[in-house]
Structures are given as C-alpha cells and as structure tokens.
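sry for the spam today, last one i promise. struct tokens for design, 608 residues
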C-alpha cells in the first residue's frame, strides 16, 4: 500500500509539473504571438478613432497572460501635421492639438481573449508613469456644426471594436506645457507640474455614445494640481495657487490659496500708469463649470462663482499719464463689451472679503487709506453672450460692508451691459458712525481732520452713464467740527491752520443736519460731469462728495464765498509780505546811508 501511495505521489507531481510547464509555455507563446497583434490593434484603434490625425508608437509591448497585464514602454503619441494642416484649410481642424510622451503604460486586469474573440476591450486599470504632455490651442472653429463627420467615436471604431471599458485611469507626476495661440502669433505658454488625473468608468459603446452626462466617456474625472505659479504676460504680477481641484462629475472647479502679487512698487509704477492690485483668497469655487465647452471653444459657463475669506488691496498710481487718455475702459460694463470672450456667470458670491484703497497725495506728501471691511454680497448676470444680453442686459451687485470698520454700508449697483454709453445706477445708505473714523483718509487726502461729529445716516440714489451723473444725496449728522491742515515739509508732518479752521467752524460749516430737531434735513440734488481722466469708482466718489458738501453747508454759493475769502487772505498775505520786504529794504537803505556818512566823516578827519 505504501509503495502504491509513493507511486501515486510521483505521478501527481509529474502531472502537476507538466501542467505548470504547459501553462508557462503557453503564456510564453501567447505573449510572443499576441504582442505584435496587440501593437497592431492599438495603432489601428488610435488611427481610426482620430480620423488619421494621430499616430502612436512605442519601443516595446509585453502581454503577461498569468497576471492579465500589459506593459508598454516609451509611448509617443503625436499628431500628423500634414493631416492637421489639410483640415485647417478646410476649417475642420480641432482647436486643441496634443502631443504625449509616456515612459511606461501599465494595463492591468485585462481580458485578452475577450478582446480577440469578442472584440471587446475590457481593462481594470491603466496607469501612466511620468507623462509629458504638450497642448497647443488655436480657435479654428467655434461650433461643432462645422465638422462634417458627424459619427460618434463608437461609430468610428465599431468595425474594429464593439466596446471599450476601462475601470480606472491614473496619471501621476504630469508635466504639462500649454501653448495658447488665440491671442496672436506669439503664444501664451503655461507650464504645470505636480499634477495628477484620476478617471473612473470609461465606457465607449452603443449605450454611451450619446451620453452627455459623461466627460470623455468617463463617469468622473478628477484633476488635482499643487503649487502652481506663473507671471502675467506684462511681467507686472506673479500668480500663485496652492491647490486646484476639478471634478467633472460635480462640475466643480476649486482653487485654494490664490495669491496675485505685483512686483516691487518702484518697478511697477515705473512701467505703467495703472493702479496696483494685491489679491488673496482662501478659496475660489466655480459651480456647474462647463469644462468641456471651455476646453474646446474658450466659452465660460458658470452657475455660481464663490469667493471666501480674502483681501483686495488697491494702490493708486502716483503718476498721471501724460497722454490724458479717457479712462472710460475703467467702467465695468464698457470693459465687458470690449472683451473678446464669451462669458456667462449667473451669480458671483463673496464672503468675508476686506477691501482697501491707498492713494498718495502730493500736496500733503502723505498716503491715505480707505477700507471696506468684512465685505459680503452677490453679483448677478456677468455676461458677454449676445443671446443672454437680449433676455436681460442688467448686471446687479448687492453689497454690504463696514466702511472704515465703523459704519455699515449697503450698496446696490445696476449696470446696463448692452448700453454703449455705459449707463448704470447706484443707491445705498451708510451709518451710524463717528466721523473721526474717516481721518485716516481725509487728513492725508483732503487735509481735513474731523475733531467731532456723528453721522446718523447718509443716503444716495444716482442715475449715471460714462459722462454724466444725476441724483439725490443726503447726510444726517450732529456736532460736526473740523481742523484744516497743511503740509509742513520741513518736519514731514501735517500742521494745523488755526485761522482757516476757525473760519471753517464759525462761518462755513453747518454743525448739524437738520439744524433743529423739527427742521427738514438739507438734501442735495447733484449733477456731475465726469472729466476724461476720472475712472469709474472715482466718478462715484466725486458724485457723492458733490452732494455731501451742501449738506455740511458748502453749497455753491458758500464754496464761492470760501474761495473769495481764501483769495482775499492770500492777497492780503502777499501784500503783507511785499510791505515787509519794502520796510526791510528801506531800513537797509538807511543803514547803508549812515555807514556811508560815517565813512565820509572819518575820511575828512584824516585828510588834513
């Protein structure tokens, strides 16, 4: 019995060894036989699905039957420039042209027999290692209607394959170079690193060929980019983004840690007459972002753009352009009309954004600061799309803020995006607040210091365009007193003008509005004509200021009286200087005569 058992063990071992050897031998034969077939099939699929526009080549392809894996080394995916140029002449070329180089591509959990016998490419996972991608963009056409071949990708490959299914695609450590030729012959080049892409459930068959819920036939594509930095084309700003995340399933693009910083002030203001901006946002999120339309045609479609926790710092340029050009392009509705872009953003929402404006006053040699703290609000209908403008051309902004971190500001701005004259309207209210809070702005910029005063409420309602503004403005306040300042260049400080301050408080200013509790408040109806050199926000501020002056007693008549009084004071001061100089000259002349007489007397004594 023991001899029979030993003999059976030997036979079992021999049979097992033979089976293993047969499987290994079959795997080697299949690998040797299938590798060239696989290479041929892959090249044919790429050529067919791209209508001969792209070719693919690789140094080696290995099929591992036992592991169900394919390894392809040194892949080069390149466009046929001759085919591209022919399509370009026929206006049928795609807007994006891609060149791809991959060190290794690993296809795992593949079913080669299903591919060969059933013509179904079924893959569990594809991994691309160290890919280098070059994309060039040219706007060759703006609509898919220009494409003559209306067949879907599945219809193009159906004679070769019945379906393509890939469970997951992972691409890591991507190096992407993007060249945008849409602005001219010189491309705008962007280089990206630390980028990864993960796509799930890629399926191309008869059921998904018309499925618009899929992006590139995938149920979802996640793109992540870390530590992106670049410089603006004019070289004046540096951009940095800590993280970028894009999900096609949720149609959401999210940016974290966005910073736009200008170059050094002396370099910036030496090269441009524009104002300087600094921007930081903790996060910027685009919801229902149509990435595919933007990728193809640079058409921006967004339902909500959300900004969270950030700062916007604007510094006025101390230099004035010698050309004195009309700053009409600073009006948002006119600037949008001149953009060569198709934009449609339904709503912009901002939360906890601090805004500041800094300006240098050459008269005072000081810098003033205006702040709008903890700003929140929404803007509806930012669009350049003509169909959207025909339905509704009004862009409306509703904003709340703490002005100088003291008074609550409610502001509503209505822009007509279709009017070539840039018509708009705005209204709002401010208060209550202590007027001393605005000294950071008024002392260096207006040479006026508020000693006391409380603003109870200010209201404004103005209709305007790029040339004229008309509206109603009122300010209710109590106990207003001021000090008039002037620059003391010798000591680099601001000095009180005692007589002018006394004149302002006693003769000019109305200390209360209304003067008495039962009196009606003073209200100004203003008309402001914008000079060409005044920008959009400057025109709003100057219009409101034109209405605030009469509320404080500085109406046109009083302003003229003040000018006359100041002119008289200046004349008298000049006359006093002249008289003083004349007296000094007369004293000097008398002194000279006395010295001359004394000299003559001394000379006469010595002569005998």
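last one done:
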């Amino acid at each position: 019995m023991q001899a029979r058992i030993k003999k059976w063990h030997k036979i079992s071992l021999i049979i097992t060894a033979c089976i293993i050897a047969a499987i290994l031998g079959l795997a080697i034969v299949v690998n040797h036989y299938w590798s060239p077939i696989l290479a041929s099939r892959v090249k044919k699929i790429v050529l067919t699905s791209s209508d001969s526009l792209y070719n693919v080549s690789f140094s080696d392809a290995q099929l591992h039957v036992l592991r169900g894996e394919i390894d392809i080394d040194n892949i080069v995916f390149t466009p046929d420039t001759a085919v591209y140029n022919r399509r370009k002449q026929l206006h049928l070329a795609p807007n994006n042209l891609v060149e791809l180089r991959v060190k290794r591509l690993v296809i795992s959990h593949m079913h080669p027999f299903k591919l060969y016998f059933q013509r179904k490419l079924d893959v569990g996972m594809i991994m691309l290692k160290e890919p280098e991608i070059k994309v060039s963009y040219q706007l060759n056409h703006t609509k898919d209607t220009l494409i003559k071949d209306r067949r879907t990708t599945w219809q193009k490959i159906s004679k070769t394959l019945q379906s393509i299914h890939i469970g997951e695609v992972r691409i890591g450590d991507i190096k992407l170079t993007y060249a945008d030729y849409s602005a001219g012959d010189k491309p705008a080049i962007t280089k990206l690193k630390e980028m990864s892409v993960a796509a799930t459930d890629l399926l191309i068959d008869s059921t998904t060929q018309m499925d618009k819920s899929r992006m590139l036939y995938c149920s979802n594509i996640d793109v992540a980019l870390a530590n992106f930095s670049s410089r603006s084309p004019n070289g004046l700003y540096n951009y940095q983004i800590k993280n970028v995340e894009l999900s096609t399933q949720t149609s959401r693009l999210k940016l974290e840690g966005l910073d736009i910083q200008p170059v050094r002030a002396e370099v910036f203001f030496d090269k441009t007459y524009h104002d300087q901006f600094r921007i930081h946002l903790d996060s910027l999120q685009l919801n229902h972002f149509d990435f595919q339309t933007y990728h193809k045609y640079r058409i921006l479609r967004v339902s909500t753009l959300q900004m969270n926790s950030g700062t916007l710092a604007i510094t006025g340029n101390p230099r004035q352009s010698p050309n004195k050009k009309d700053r009409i392009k600073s009006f948002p509705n006119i600037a949008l009309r001149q953009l060569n872009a198709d934009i449609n953003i339904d709503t912009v929402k901002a939360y906890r954004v601090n805004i500041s404006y800094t300006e240098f006053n050459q008269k005072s040699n000081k810098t003033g600061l205006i702040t709008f703290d903890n700003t929140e609000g929404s803007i509806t209908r930012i669009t350049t799309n003509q169909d959207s403008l025909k339905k509704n051309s009004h862009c409306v902004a509703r904003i709340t803020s703490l002005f100088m971190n003291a008074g609550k500001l409610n502001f509503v701005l209505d822009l007509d995006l279709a009017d070539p004259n840039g018509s708009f309207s705005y209204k709002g209210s401010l208060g209550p607040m202590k007027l001393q809070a605005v000294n950071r702005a008024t002392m260096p910029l207006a040479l006026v210091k508020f000693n006391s005063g409380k603003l109870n409420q200010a209201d404004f309602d103005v209709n305007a365009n790029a040339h004229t503004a008309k509206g109603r403005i009122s300010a209710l306040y109590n106990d207003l007193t001021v000090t008039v300042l002037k620059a003391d260049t010798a000591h680099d400080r601001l000095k009180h003008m005692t007589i002018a301050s006394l004149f302002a408080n006693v003769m000019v200013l109305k200390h209360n509005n209304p003067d008495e509790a039962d009196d009606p408040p003073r209200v100004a109806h203003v008309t402001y004509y914008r000079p060409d050199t005044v920008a959009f926000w400057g025109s709003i501020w100057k219009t409101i200021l034109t209405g605030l002056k009469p509320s404080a007693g500085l109406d046109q008549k009083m302003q003229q009286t003040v000018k006359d009084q100041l002119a008289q004071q200046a004349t008298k001061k000049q006359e006093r200087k002249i008289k003083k100089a004349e007296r000094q000259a007369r004293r000097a002349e008398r002194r000279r005569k006395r010295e001359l007489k004394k000299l003559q007397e001394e000379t006469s004594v010595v002569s005998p």
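The first strand starts at residue 54 and ends at 57. ok im logging off now
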